[in-house]
From TrEMBL:
GO function terms (MF aspect): hydrolase activity, acting on carbon-nitrogen (but not peptide) bonds, in cyclic amides
PANTHER family (alphabetical): DIHYDROPYRIMIDINASE-RELATED PROTEIN 5 (PTHR11647:SF58), HYDRANTOINASE/DIHYDROPYRIMIDINASE FAMILY MEMBER (PTHR11647)
Name of the protein described by the UniProt record: Amidohydrolase-related domain-containing protein
CC terms in the record's Gene Ontology section: cytosol
Organism: Knipowitschia caucasica (Caucasian dwarf goby)
Length: 410
């Protein structure tokens, strides 16, 4: 039995050895597989090292890219800063440009206004010249003898003034020029003037230099038909100078039965004592009588003597009329132009008149003629220009007249 157990044990041992051999074989195979796995792992590790190396390079490149990106961002920030400054400067430039455009708009507006004022001034100047022409033709009697006895006031101003760089506006042209004034009188007008030293220089750049205005009809310090004018020659001429008017033409209206010469002398005495600028006097014929005839007025209709109408323009008058223009008058008429008058006529142009005529031009007149130009007249003549007249003459210019002569005095 013991041997039997030993035999069984040997069998079991043989089986175990066999199993052990198998296990060793399997272990050998496992070891071989393990070696293969280790070999593969070694290869994987090598690949991993390569991958890590490549990753390290990629990280290095990425760092460089980030560094470059940082620099680019810095440059971009700087460019944005410069752009911001440029936009700021552009904004300022736009603001200045808007302001300049606004100033230019204002300058254009002021220029348009100045042109408008100049147009109005030219219109008023033309009107004043027209009124001056009418007033001169309307029986303006002022004695040359008085002119000689009482010469115009002499200027006492001794300063020298140069108005430089302005635009001189005159009746004949407009030009950029300088104006030199000495002793109150204009001596030179032009560019690059040769003037003495010590002159006061007035810069007129961008401005208009205009001649002084002439007010052709003013009423100062006057009493007529119980009405009095409070403004005297001082206040009136001072106000005129403040407005750029440097000469006034004052109307003298004598009271009834007052001598025209006495009225003129009285008014001249007041004017000489008070006026601040140049002036002239124009005497109106307000009544008719021997005293009027003695100063050279040669004609006056009977109805005019009674009614006593005196004016620059008169129309539709029932009585006789004295004026620059008169039409449709039932009686005698004194004026620059007269037509369709039933009675005698005094005018600038008269033709085919049945009665006597006083005018600037007279032809085919049966009676005497008084006018600015008279030729081949059988009677006396009163006018601005008279030649070869047999009688007396009253006018602005008179030549070859046998009698007394009167002209405008200023």
């Amino acid at each position: 039995m013991f041997f039997s157990q030993i035999k069984n044990s040997k069998v079991f041992l043989s089986h175990d050895i066999s199993f052990l051999s198998h296990d060793i074989s399997f272990l050998s195979h496992d070891n071989s597989f393990l070696l293969h796995d280790i070999s593969f792992l070694s290869h994987d590790n090598s690949f991993l090292l390569h991958d890590i190396s490549f990753l390290s390079h990629d990280i290095s490149f990425l760092s460089n890219d980030i560094s470059f990106l940082s620099h680019d961002t810095s440059f971009l920030s700087r460019d944005i800063g410069f752009l911001s400054h440029d936009i700021s400067f552009l904004s300022h430039d736009t603001s200045f440009l808007s302001r300049d455009i606004s100033f230019l708009s204002h300058d254009i507006s002021f220029l348009s206004r100045d042109i408008s004022f100049l147009s109005h001034d030219t219109s008023f100047l033309s009107r004043d010249i027209s009124f001056l022409s009418h007033d001169t033709s309307f029986l303006s009697l002022q004695s040359e003898n008085m002119d000689e006895a009482n010469p115009p006031r002499k200027r006492t101003m001794s300063s020298r003034i140069l108005i430089k760089g302005g635009k001189v506006v005159n009746d004949d042209c407009t030009q950029e020029a300088d104006v030199y004034i000495e002793n109150g009188l204009i001596q030179q007008v032009g560019k690059e003037l040769m003037i003495p030293g010590g002159a006061k220089v007035i810069d007129a750049s961008g401005k208009l230099v205009l001649p002084g205005g002439i007010d052709t009809s003013v009423h100062l310090e006057q009493t007529f038909m119980n009405a009095a004018i409070q403004e005297d020659f001082y206040s009136g001429t001072k106000a005129a100078l403040m407005g750029g008017t440097t000469m006034v033409m004052a109307l003298v209206l004598p009271e009834q039965h007052c001598s025209l010469v006495d009225a003129f002398e009285k008014c001249k005495e007041l004017a000489d004592a008070k006026t601040c600028c140049d002036y002239s006097l124009t005497v109106g014929v307000t009544w008719w009588g021997p005293k009027v005839q003695t100063v050279g007025v040669t004609w006056w209709g009977p109805k005019v003597q009674t009614v006593g109408v005196v004016g620059a323009q008169g129309t539709d008058c029932g009585g006789d009329m004295v004026g620059a223009q008169g039409t449709d008058c039932g009686g005698d008429m004194v004026g620059a132009q007269g037509t369709d008058c039933g009675g005698d006529m005094v005018g600038a142009q008269g033709t085919d008149c049945g009665g006597d005529m006083v005018g600037a031009q007279g032809t085919d007149c049966g009676g005497d003629m008084v006018g600015a130009q008279g030729t081949d007249c059988g009677g006396d003549m009163v006018g601005a220009q008279g030649t070869d007249c047999g009688g007396d003459m009253v006018g602005a210019q008179g030549t070859d007249c046998g009698g007394p002569r009167y002209r405008l005095w200023g």
